[in-house]
Amino acid sequence: MAKALAVEFAKEGFNLQLAGRNVEDIGKTAADLQIRYEIKVETLYLDVLKFETHPDFFNNLNPKPEVVVAAAGLLGDQKVTERDQSATLRVINTNFTGIVSLLNEFANYFENQGSGSIIGISSVAGDRGRMKNYIYGAAKAGFTAYLSGLRQRLSKKGVEVLSVQPGFINTKMLQGVETPKPLTAEPEQVAKMIYNGFRSKKHVIYTPGYWRVIMFIVRSIPERIFVKLDL
Amino acid sequence: MSKQKISNWGGYPVVESEIIKMNHPGTFSGKRGDTIARGLGRSYGDSSLAETIVDVTGMDRFLAFDDKTGVLRCEAGVSFATILEFFVPKGWFLPVTPGTKFITVGGAIASDVHGKNHHKEVCFGNWVSEMKILLASGETVLCSPTEKSDLFYATIGGMGLTGIILEAEFALKKIETSFIKQEALPAENLDTVMRLFDESKEFTYSVAWIDCLAKGKNLGKSILFRGEHANLIDIKDTPFANTPLFYHNKGMLGVPFNFPSGSLNSLTIKLFNGFYYMMNKMKGSGITHLDPFFYPLDAIANWNRIYGKKGFLQYQFVLPLSNSRDGMREVLQAIAVEGRGSFLAVLKLFGKQESMISFPQEGYTLALDFPIMPGLLKFLTKLDEIVLKHGGRFYFTKDSRLDPDTFKKGYPRLAEFLEIKKKYDPDGVFSSRQSKRLELT
Question: pTM for this structure?
Answer without folding.
Answer: 0.89
